[in-house]
TrEMBL record, chain A:
This is SCP-2 sterol transfer family protein. It comes from the Bacteria. Transmembrane segments: none annotated. InterPro entries: SCP2_sterol-bd_dom, SCP2_sterol-bd_dom_sf. Pfam families: SCP2 (PF02036). Residues 15-105 form the SCP2 domain.
UniProtKB/TrEMBL annotation, chain B:
Residues 8-189 form the Putative glycogen debranching enzyme N-terminal domain. Residues 429-590 form the Mannosylglycerate hydrolase MGH1-like glycoside hydrolase domain. This is Glycogen debranching enzyme (Alpha-1,6-glucosidase). It holds the Pfam family MGH1-like_GH. One of its GO terms (biological process) is carbohydrate metabolic process.
Length: 127, 683
């Protein structure tokens, strides 16, 4: 399992109060296939303002399946989950709202600048 | 488009020629489409090697068409010994019943050939064709023809089966049939569109409405929706026709979102059969007094897909409401940004406006609580990422110059925002109506914060900000020598001074100083903007005016409905009535189905509203227009637990009676009548 993915899941509880602001609760299972036909499981229990992460399988309200490689790109901000589902590189089953909430944990694409800073610089205004 | 025939059920639709045939085309999307993919690009029938000619077409139903055909050219009609009926329906899949009738006194053998092909074009490739990156194959398998497209894990199939035996090859089916004297022969063709998921299953199989539905199910569902809507009785025939047509089309435009498993309204046939933030919210605002239950799924999916990060490719920012969601190959492989795309600067304030308006009608405080964080994030966006330059206005400038939208307002074509002399301003741009929406969103957000979120401080702050915005706007956008509001500010803060219909939206938002409303009304109903059929998008003396220019001179029914609502808000009831009257008069020329837009020619010049060449129809927010016009004419406005009914029916329209208007009051009836000398003479 990649270090980036491990670190990502470790960071979730601390980030939950900021990110899980809605009223959604539920459990999302994330199944990641790694080389050699092995599948790694993560279980993310979300409720307003808090999250618990474990390495169990289910029970879950929704399941995300993809390669660990794709998930690592998502964790780095390089890939986006909905496009991945549309091109069938990943699959989703169960309550979609849970994934829509969970995707808020993924970061900006690398190297992204604040658009306000860019626009104000271009317009010659103070940022 | 006028000589094409369309049937649709949600976001599956079929566009054919008058014979029921589909031939490969790239300029206009003919064929069978589902979820933004073309599953049939060839569907062409010949009888003994000859093309058929249409005798008549029955397309009274949105999901069903029947073609009556005979071989050869029209001059041969009278000799026709044979005719063909193609009876077809759409409901997730596509079914066609093909019947050959032998009118002669002896048995005849026919060779019936159906050419079949699928290019699996993404809707965006239909607009600008290019080489497919994946591989298409065809397979014959017993009584079925299977057309397959694969690109990496992306996998679509069209599966065609026939009830009667045929010689099937990879390019179609041939039937050798023998029909008795005065007899007939029929086969049933079934076309399934399959969208495979990673586990080799059709991902729509698990959707409640996603699979094939038979005609009875579609009919039942559509009539149930129409049954629920308030009943209209009126003297004005065009109004009755338009109302009925609107309800039919709203029923037909509903589709099931793959993402949420809820039913949403597609924006318009053929280009916009998907979820648009702006279109779905304006349509929701229009239909709210009639079919409030259509609104929560829209708000919920828009909240679920609210922007959460800064993504330049998608023009996404935290708190922003989406512009457009697509399901096709180009979105999946990120050749287009619609997964979803966020390039719209008005959807975010509109989200707050719709949520508030919905509660005012329905009293559904649960939804207001459920969506509190989404609404706060939307309000937050207005003052942060929305205010690109930090000047207290909403600005837009795409960060995706290749596939993003330049103009992120409802007039989103490239030349829609211009100076009076036709020059195009630089970026970023702040169009005027965006500031109106921001003002309204803050005022409504304040009401929600005070009444439901238990946050009076936030409410005070929003009201303060709204008041400051109104003051600032009336200073910076008002052009004293022209006496109207500028269409926009450019990146240098200069007024983009074209006279446009956008000033009508400002009335709807309430951002216009009372003292200036009269001048705005004069412009809207004056000869430069008002064509006689409606308010033009751009005044006819402006540099870029073109009566058949998409956003620079045409008349948009949706635009006019919002303007009429704005006139109502400021008390200009007679003027609002003139717009309602003009729109309904125009609708007669479209059999009650107002198109996306029509030409801006002067009414006295053409005597009828001239069609805009590629207008979508049905288009959701045009479909919603007659409903909002009814609201305006009857003066319907929720106040506390009650519905205020204050009719101002235009001269000559007679009686309007709307029964069982749903809302927090249960249901109430509204009655209006025009009171003029002309009406006095009515029986």
């Amino acid at each position: 399992m990649s270090e980036a993915i491990e670190r990502f899941f470790e960071s979730l509880p601390a980030r939950a109060p900021e990110i899980l602001r809605g009223l959604v609760s539920g459990t999302l299972q994330i199944d990641l296939s790694v080389t050699g036909g092995v599948t790694e499981h993560w279980l993310v229990m979300m409720r307003p303002g808090a999250v618990m992460v474990s390495r169990q399988r289910g029970p879950a309200d929704a399941i995300w399946y993809s390669s660990a490689d794709l998930f690592e790109r998502m964790v780095r901000g390089q890939a986006q989950g909905i496009a991945a589902v549309l091109r069938n590189e990943s699959t989703f089953s169960g309550n979609v709202v849970l994934f829509l909430v969970f995707r808020r944990f993924f970061p900006d694409p690398p190297g992204t600048r604040d658009p306000r800073e860019v626009a104000r610089q271009q317009a010659g205004r103070p940022a | 488009m006028n000589d094409l025939v369309s049937i649709l059920d949600g976001n599956t639709f079929l566009v054919t020629d008058q014979r029921g045939d589909v031939e490969p085309s790239f300029d206009f999307p003919t064929g069978l489409f589902s979820f933004d993919t073309r599953f049939l690009s060839t569907w062409l029938l010949t009888l003994d090697g000859e093309r058929l000619h249409p005798l008549s077409i029955d397309d009274a139903r949105s999901y069903r068409t029947r073609f009556f055909l005979a071989p050869g050219e029209p001059t041969h009609y009278l000799d026709a010994k044979v005719s063909v009926i193609r009876s077809r329906a759409i409901g997730g899949s596509f079914n066609e019943e093909l019947t050959v009738l032998n009118h002669s006194g002896e048995q005849v053998e026919f060779r019936l050939r159906l050419d079949i092909g699928a290019d699996f074009a993404d809707l965006f490739e239909v607009k600008s064709p290019r080489q497919k990156k994946g591989r298409a194959t065809a397979m014959v398998n017993g009584d079925e023809l299977r057309l397959i497209y694969r690109r990496e894990a992306f996998h679509r199939e069209t599966v065609i089966t026939t009830s009667e035996p045929a010689d099937i090859d990879v390019a179609g089916m041939t039937f050798h049939v023998r029909v008795d004297r005065h007899g007939e022969w029929t086969t049933r063709l079934h076309v399934a569109t399959v969208v495979y998921g990673a586990r080799g299953e059709d991902i729509r199989a698990s959707l409640r409405y996603g699979g094939s539905r038979d005609m009875a199910a579609i009919e039942a569902e559509q009539s149930e929706l129409i049954e629920r809507a308030p009943k209209l009785g009126c003297d004005c025939e065009p109004l009755a026709t338009a109302y009925r047509q609107s309800l039919d089309d709203l029923a037909a435009l509903r589709y099931e979102s793959i993402a949420l498993g809820v039913r949403l309204l597609a924006a318009g046939l053929p280009w916009f059969m998907t979820l648009f933030g702006r279109d779905s919210m304006f349509t929701s605002l229009q239909v709210l007094p009639f079919l409030p239950e259509l609104v929560p799924p829209t708000l919920q999916i828009l909240a679920g897909l609210q922007g959460h990060r800064v993504d330049d490719f998608r023009d996404e920012e935290p708190g922003k409401i989406l512009h457009e969601l697509r399901y096709g190959e180009s979105a999946g492989f990120e050749e287009q940004p619609h997964s979803p795309y966020y390039g719209s600067a008005d959807a975010t304030p509109l989200f707050v406006i719709l949520l508030d308006e919905y509660e005012r009608w329905t009293g559904d405080s649960q939804l207001v609580l459920l969506l509190e964080s989404a609404a706060r994030a939307a309000l937050g966006w207005i003052d942060t990422y929305g205010d690109l330059l930090g000047t207290g206005y909403i600005w837009f400038q795409t960060r995706n110059p290749q596939t993003g939208l330049q103009n992120q307002c409802w007039k989103d074509s490239p030349d829609s925002i211009s100076f009076s002399d036709g020059r195009l301003p630089g970026f970023p741009r702040a169009t005027c109506e965006l500031q109106g929406y921001a003002y309204d969103a803050k005022m409504r957000g304040a009401r929600l914060a005070r009444k439901f979120w238990n946050d009076p401080e936030y409410a005070d702050r929003l009201e303060r900000e709204a008041a400051q915005l109104k003051e600032r706007f009336n200073r910076d956008f008002w052009i004293p020598e022209k006496e109207y509001f500028a269409l926009a500010l450019d990146g240098d803060g200069r007024q983009v001074d074209a006279l446009s219909s956008n000033i009508g939206h400002l009335l709807w938002s309430g951002i216009v100083d009372e003292t200036r409303a009269g001048r705005i009304v004069d412009h809207l109903l004056g000869p430069r903007l008002f064509s006689g059929w409606g308010v033009r998008t751009l005044a006819d003396d402006q540099g870029r005016y073109n009566p058949i220019g998409y956003h620079v001179g045409t008349v948009w029914p949706f635009d006019n409905s919002i303007i009429a609502w704005g006139l109502h808000r400021y008390g200009y009831r007679e003027e609002a009535g003139r717009i309602c009257d003009a729109m309904l008069a125009a609708s007669r020329y479209f059999n009650g189905r107002l198109p996306e837009a029509f030409a801006g020619y002067e009414r006295s010049l053409t005597d009828f509203p001239v069609r805009y060449p590629t207008a979508s129809s049905p288009q959701a927010w045009s479909t919603g227009t007659p409903l909002l016009l009814l609201r305006v004419m009857l003066g319907l406005e929720p106040q506390g637990e009650h519905l205020v009914i204050d009719p101002a029916v235009p001269e000559g329209m007679g009686r309007i009676e709307l029964l069982d208007i749903p809302g927090r009051w249960g249901t109430v009836d509204a009655l209006g009548r025009s009171r003029t000398p002309l009406d006095g003479r009515r029986p």
